Amino acid sequence: MGAAIGLLTQFVLSNRGAPPLVPPLSLPVTLVLIGAVLLGFGIRLRRTVAKRAGDVNPFHAVRLLAAARAGQLVGGLLGGFGAGLALSLLGRSIPAPTATWLPMLLAFVGGAILVACAAVAEHLCRVPPGGDDADSAEHDADPSGPVDQAAFRKP
Fold first, then answer.
1. How far apart are CA 71 and CA 131, in angstroms?
2. In the chain, N or C terminus with fewer CB closer than 10 Å?
3. CA–CA separation, 115 and 118 (whole Å)
4. In the predicted model, what is the mean pLDDT of residues 127-146?
5. What is the pTM of this model?
């Protein structure tokens, strides 16, 4: 989706006779920093869970999970946008200067790094299996659980 928007943006600018859109260098830097923050929070959460599982606030894990998923979407869209901007330069007869295509390529790489870091942070939000002793004793007594007889009747 991001690549299509980037290509479309460059084609519209080209048809108007405007120069190509060059993203600022702060865009890939920001994407990488967001990825590093998500990864740092994910590692911190995993260490806290490993040390003392009872002291973890589940709302922190849910917020981090939501931020990680949002980071994957944003990284994919903005990285794809940078790739679309760069792809539009490939069809030109005269190659674009480095100052034009390098920020586009860096935006693509920054988006890919954000997607990777957010995916790892999402993986770190998983809670290891385990539970209360009462729950495990209940499941040991009847592993199939209660059966709803109404589900097996014909309507």
1. 30
2. C
3. 5
4. 51
5. 0.77
